[in-house]
Design goal:
This protein is mainly alpha-helical and about 180 residues long. About 70% of the residues lie in helices and about 10% in strands. The chain has a two-stranded antiparallel sheet with strand order 1-2. A two-stranded antiparallel ribbon has the order 3-4. The longest helix is centred in the middle third of the chain and has 33 residues, at about 80-110.
Length: about 180
């Protein structure tokens, strides 16, 4: 079951889900701000709520896949610390986007952008940027769920499930250790 949630080695589920939710949330905030500045307010009022709705729907599988990844990180390590701050930041982000959705709901019905939705949306987007930065550190600094097999044949790299176990690189302040999972 864990493999089904996490994805296959070299093809983790969490990153593409984050990309989709980040895109939906960002489009929603851009629409809300554009509408607040008078650009097609009626259309932006509706479009922003729909985009944020899609982001909130994606939050459930995104959080689940991230939580399963987090549970496998060794306690007391720098990577677990960064992942924990990322988790807390993203929970706060989801709450802020839910508040934005609620603040914009009347505006959706009345074809207008609500001021409170603009404020909460901009705050939520700031949290999203911070959380995304931390998530990037997990992938690009610590190599969480990264195989790091540069000599893998192209066909093996592109076909999901063709590669067996995965190697997760954990960088510590004084040394680098490699942990192999099967």
């Amino acid at each position: 079951m864990r493999r089904l949630i996490q994805g296959l080695p070299g093809k983790p589920s969490h990153p593409p889900l984050t990309d989709a939710s980040i895109g939906a949330y960002t489009v929603g905030v851009v629409m809300i701000v554009a509408g607040a500045f008078g650009l097609e307010e009626r259309q932006m009022a509706g479009g922003s709520l729909l985009a944020i709705s899609f982001g909130l729907l994606l939050a459930v599988p995104t959080a689940l896949t991230g939580l399963v990844d987090w549970l496998e990180l060794p306690r007391g390590t720098p990577v677990r610390t960064v992942a924990t701050v990322h988790l807390v930041t993203m929970v706060a982000t989801t709450i802020a986007f839910a508040a934005t959705w609620l603040a914009q709901l009347d505006g959706y019905r009345d074809d207008r952008v609500e001021t409170l939705a603009v404020v909460t949306g901009v705050v939520a987007e700031g949290l999203l940027i911070g959380g995304g930065f931390l998530g990037g550190a997990l992938a690009f600094v610590y190599g969480v769920r990264v195989l790091k097999r540069p000599d893998t044949p192209v066909a093996d790299a592109l076909v999901p499930g063709r590669i067996g176990g995965y190697v997760e690189v954990l960088t510590e302040p004084t040394s680098q250790s490699t942990k192999e999972h099967r």
